[in-house]
Amino acid sequence: MKIAEVGNIIEFKDGLQGIVEKVNENSVIVDLTYMENFDELELEEKTVINHKRYTIIHGSDE
């Protein structure tokens, strides 16, 4: 399992995407305002995602 780094863009839970802001031992804190349709979704600006529950779609090494 590859762990995301700060600045990576990840995808999780039915296609939601966000930018990793902080990496914790078991999870990452993600800024969801990255998504173009963020306002329509009525979500909180940030959320916590377990490392097992996301995939990195754009990393710093690409």
Describe the structure.
By secondary structure, the chain is mainly β. It has one domain (9-54). It is built from one helix and five strands, in the order βββαββ. The protein has one helix spanning 38-41; strands spanning 9-12, 16-23, 27-31, 46-50, 54-58. Strands 4-3-2-1-5 form a five-stranded antiparallel beta sheet, with no helix packed on it. The mean pLDDT is 94. It comes from Sporosarcina luteola.
Give unreliable regions as ranges. Answer: none
Strand order of the largest sheet: 4-3-2-1-5
Q: So what's the overall shape? A: globular
Number of DSSP helices? 1
Distance between the termini: 17 Å
Q: Cα-atom Rg, whole angstroms?
A: 11 Å
Number of separate strands: 5
Please, how many domains? Answer: 1
The major sheet is characterized as: 5 strands, antiparallel
Write down the oligomeric state: single chain
H/E order of the elements?
EEEHEE
Q: Please identify the structural class as seen in this structure.
A: mainly beta
Which whole number gives the mean pLDDT? 94
Helix share, percent: under 10%
Assess the beta-strand content as a share of residues: 35-45%
